[in-house]
Amino acid sequence: MAGRPRDPGIDGAVIAAAADLLARQELATLPMEAVAERAGVAKSTVYRRWANGDALIADTVDSLDRPPPGRPGASLAEDLARFVESLRPVARLLPSLNLLARRNPGTQTRLVALIDGRRLFLEEALARAESRGELRDRPDSTSLLHLLIAAASHDASETAVRLLIRGLRATEAAQ
């Protein structure tokens, strides 16, 4: 006799609860009891799906690993604005994920892959801007990614994108 089918909504609720806890404070471990309480499920429900906090953290990081939605924008400003919006969930969790990555190589590997994927998307956006003639000199994608993550984490994305575009144009005009 098979048991009751799993409710797929519970997985999403638990991952969202884990992300919320990680975003609210810098955590070196993920308290499963607090996750269960925040998700509105029993602790046993969480443990049936994830053997431990590290497994839940892995799925939480994996849930963040998606490219910005939609097609590329018509300009670098559009691409960067969409990109920064897609970075918000990642930026909210970075303080905790950095702590967790120090003690868990699996989390470190996932975090590096997540950031590298975002950097590659940014490089594609910069290449498109360069081909449209929006950039004369291409900025370093890693440094630009760090700036955009900082902007996303402080709800300053619109201002950051506007200043970046203005700065890139000023650099072009000065040459």
What are the defining features of this structure?
elongated; 0% strand; mainly alpha; 175 residues; Arc Repressor Mutant, subunit A
Q: What is the compact description of this entry?
A:
The chain is mostly helical and 175 residues long. 74% of the residues lie in helices and 0% in strands.
Number of strands: 0
Count of helical regions: 8
For the residues shown, what is the average pLDDT? 86
Order of helices and strands: HHHHHHHH
Q: What radius of gyration results from the CA coordinates?
A: 19 Å
Residue windows where pLDDT falls under 50 for at least 5 positions? none
User: Could you tell me how far the N terminus lies from the C terminus, measured between alpha carbons in angstroms?
Assistant: 75 Å
Amount of helix: over 70%
Number of structurally distinct domains: 2
Strand content is under 5%
Largest sheet: none
Helix/strand/pairing category: mainly alpha
Q: Estimate the global geometry from the Cα principal axes.
A: elongated
List the helices and strands and how they pair.
Blueprint: H1 8-24, H2 32-39, H3 43-49, H4 53-64, H5 76-103, H6 105-131, H7 141-153, H8 157-174
Helix pairs in contact: 1-2, 1-4, 1-5, 2-3, 4-6, 5-6, 5-7, 5-8, 7-8
Describe this structure in words.
The protein is mainly alpha-helical and 175 residues long. It has two domains: 8-61, Homeodomain-like (Arc Repressor Mutant, subunit A); 67-174, no CATH class. 74% of the residues lie in helices and 0% in strands. The chain contains eight helices and no strands. α1 crosses α5. It is elongated and about 60 Å long.
